[in-house]
Amino acid sequence: MAEKIIAYRFDRLEETLGQLNKDNCAIIAGGTDVMVMHKSRRGVPPKIPKPIIFIDHLSELKRVYLKGNNLHIGACCTYSELLDDALIPIPLKKAIKTIAAPAIRNRGTLGGNICNASPAGDTLPLLYVYNAKILLRSVNGERIVPVSEFIQGVRRVQREPNEILTEIILPSVLVEGAHVVFEKVGNRNADAIAKVGFAGYIRTKGAVIEDVRFAFGAVGPTMVRSIDIEKKLLGKTIPLADADIAQVIAAFNKIIKPIDDQRSTALYRKTVALNLLRYFLSMKHN
Ligand SMILES: Cc1cc2nc3c(=O)[nH]c(=O)nc-3n(C[C@H](O)[C@H](O)[C@H](O)COP(=O)(O)OP(=O)(O)OC[C@H]3O[C@@H](n4cnc5c(N)ncnc54)[C@H](O)[C@@H]3O)c2cc1C
């Protein structure tokens, strides 16, 4: 006989937070990572060792809106919903189109991609270069944390058991006039897990670099970003001198430490990551 599981599905966020405060539950948004993580052999239902609590239907977690210059994205917006939303920046839509196939995009959520904290999570390099912050709520109140602090390691995030990630905040994303690039290298254009992910962000005044950011996915336990290396390019002019490009590449060569696994080799990953960076640094950005 199939084992009984306890499942909660409240109408409102407040009730959901109340239950999470009483009971250590497994949160299910789209379930596209959770179900794989707990899968059993064929024909046997997944075994999730805790009560489960569904959050994917909560209207409080499905809004996309501007507040001042900041774009707020509900954690439970599915990828398909985000692709249809005019406020979502084009580079983020480009990343989403590389994720899985439409059936998974109809279920998978941005909040789930963050909380799953896979080194190959496709939205993460972009969220890092956008300096994304996340809003977490519990019965005790709310807190805002940079995504780069929230994600601590492979599938490790700084979330208290009674907290829900409610919104992703992209600061000033629609007003900065930055040039933002996303690239994913995998076996296919979509429906393949990344061998390497890359996001680059650059804002110039005339030819002078005012802000520049890079993040690499799938080449370490979490996204690789270095504010110290980025700072070296501030005030330089575009096109960058070959020596400046070489210096940045040499610096990342030291800190990018990928691994061999079933999808790729460390050597391939590092070579491609540095090539993507070189390509981005050589672009005209106007
Ligand atoms: C066939 C297939 C292909 C895939 N391809 C890709 C791909 O190409 N690129 C890619 O990046 N990913 C891919 N994925 C992984 C997955 O679809 C994404 O990571 C997706 O964004 C997960 O979202 P979800 O809502 O389904 O998360 P869920 O599975 O519901 O949750 C994932 C984790 O996050 C927690 N969680 C979710 N939402 C919240 C929240 N709001 N607050 C607190 N905790 C939360 C859950 O408890 C769980 O630990 C694929 C998965 C499958 C099955």
Label the structural class: alpha+beta
Can you list the strand order of the major beta sheet?
Answer: 4-5-10-6-7
**Bound ligands, each once:** flavin-adenine dinucleotide
How many strands, what sense, and barrel or not for the largest sheet? 5 strands, antiparallel
Individual helix count:
11
Number of strands: 13
Residue windows where pLDDT falls under 50 for at least 5 positions? none
- Multimerization status: single chain
Q: CATH top level of the largest domain?
A: Alpha Beta
Distance between the termini: 64 Å
> What is the radius of gyration computed over CA atoms, rounded to a whole number of angstroms?
20 Å
Overall, the morphology is globular
If you average the pLDDT, what whole number results? 95
What proportion strand? 15-25%
The CATH topology of the largest domain is Uridine Diphospho-n-acetylenolpyruvylglucosamine Reductase, domain 3
How many structural units, i.e. domains?
2
Write the layout of secondary structure elements.
Elements (H helix, E strand, L loop, with lengths): L6 E2 L4 H10 L3 E3 L5 H4 L14 E3 L9 E4 L2 E5 L4 H5 L6 H8 L4 H4 L4 H7 L7 H6 L3 E6 L2 E6 H4 E3 L2 E2 L6 E7 L8 E7 L10 E10 L2 E10 L9 H5 L10 H14 L10 H17 L4
Parallel strand pairs: 1-3, 2-3
Antiparallel strand pairs: 4-5, 5-10, 6-7, 6-10, 8-9, 11-12, 12-13
Bound molecules: flavin-adenine dinucleotide (FAD).
The site of flavin-adenine dinucleotide (FAD) has 29 residues, from strand 2, helix 2, helix 6 and strand 10.
How would you summarize this macromolecular structure in one to three sentences?
The protein has 286 residues and is an alpha+beta fold. The chain has helices at 13-22, 34-37, 79-83, 90-97, 102-105, 110-116, 124-129, 147-150, 227-231, 242-255, 266-282, and strands spanning 7-8, 26-28, 52-54, 64-67, 70-74, 133-138, 141-146, 151-153, 156-157, 164-170, 179-185, 196-205, 208-217. The structure holds flavin-adenine dinucleotide (FAD).
